[in-house]
Design a protein that fits this description.
With 307 residues, this protein is mostly helical. Among the domains are: 58 residues; 33 residues, no CATH class. Strands 1-2-3-4-5 form a five-stranded antiparallel β-sheet, with no helix packed on it. β4 and β5 form a beta hairpin. The longest helix is centred in the N-terminal third of the chain and has 33 residues. The chain is elongated and about 135 Å long. The termini are far apart. About 16% of the residues have low confidence.
């Protein structure tokens, strides 16, 4: 745009100069006739020189200066994008000369790469030949189902569980972590990942992290509380009150789930706290009776009698 304007200005100046030259030459001709040729030619030359300076040299320098002013130095770093006039933070908010504007950003590509379905299938030796063949058939069917419905949570979950059964923990983790993204509101994948790290890979910190993530997805699901209690009771943070605390949290979030009451009563009994064990067994028994589970209530009464 600036080059076009400069060219138009130059052409206008050139035409205007040509017009003036014609006028000067005409005047010079008249001057020659009046024998004042020499002085008039000098004047004409000065006029032409002044016009060149005014219409060509000065505009050119002005445009160069303006062009320099329009150049912005851009610096990129991890915190923000800055220019001489604009500062853009990582949230897309820009500040210009004391004011703020919102920068429209393009949505990021959130496409998640699904796990590969051509994993080598290795069946553990403890499967006999018949069981091994059955597992291979189940896995082949599960893979086919996934291919036919690539965003089916249930199909992927089935495949992950089969990988887990044949001790392909790497394959199982890939699938479970994928369904956590595929269905972020579901907590089953997080619990299953926690179980692999807990019972199979013995990475207890990752097990705890995934159990806690499972709870954040569904605070009313008892499984993650039970698994966390088992983790804390047996192998991780055993010198803390975490094993009890997680059950109390679970009881609060699950409307006093009787299974959690029984686990808490059993934990108190194992640690010699018969008084609290009795209280929790009785609470679980009363809840079982309320729910119409007479046989369960009878078993709990036996535990109470044996204290």
């Amino acid at each position: 745009m600036q080059k076009t304007r400069r060219m138009a200005g130059f052409l206008f100046a050139l035409c205007f100069i040509c017009f003036l030259v014609a006028v000067v030459l005409y005047l010079s001709t008249i001057a020659c006739m009046l024998k004042e040729q020499k002085n008039n030619l000098v004047i004409a030359g000065l006029v032409i020189a002044i016009l060149i300076v005014i219409f060509i040299v000065l505009p050119s320098k002005t445009n160069e200066q303006n062009s320099d002013k329009n150049v912005e130095v851009i610096t990129l770093n991890e915190e923000a994008v800055t220019t001489t006039d604009v500062t853009i933070d990582v949230d897309g908010n820009a500040t210009i000369q004391g004011g703020a504007i919102q920068i429209d950003t393009q949505p990021q590509d959130t496409t998640v790469q699904a796990p590969r379905l051509d994993r080598e299938i290795s069946i553990p030796d403890y499967f006999d030949s018949n069981a091994s063949e059955i597992m291979r058939t189940k896995i082949a069917d599960a893979i086919l189902n996934v291919k036919n419905s690539k965003r089916s949570f249930d199909n992927w979950l089935t495949l992950g569980n089969l990988y887990n059964q044949i001790q392909d923990y790497e394959g199982a983790l890939e699938v479970y972590e994928y369904i956590n993204i595929l269905s972020p509101e579901n907590n089953i994948g997080y619990t299953n990942v926690g179980n692999i790290y807990h019972y199979n890979l013995q990475d207890f910190e990752k097990a705890e992290t995934n159990y806690l993530l499972s709870i954040t997805k569904d605070v009313s699901s008892e499984n993650a509380y039970i698994e966390l209690h088992t983790l804390y009771k047996n192998v991780y943070k055993t010198d803390t009150s975490s094993a009890v605390d997680i059950l109390l949290e679970g009881l609060e979030n699950t409307d006093n789930n009787p299974d959690l009451m029984v686990m808490l009563a059993s934990y108190c009994k194992e640690n010699g706290d018969k008084e609290n064990a009795r209280s929790w067994y009785e609470a679980a028994r009363d809840r079982a009776l309320k729910d119409g589970k007479q046989s369960f209530a009878d078993l709990l009464q036996e535990e109470i009698d044996n204290l």
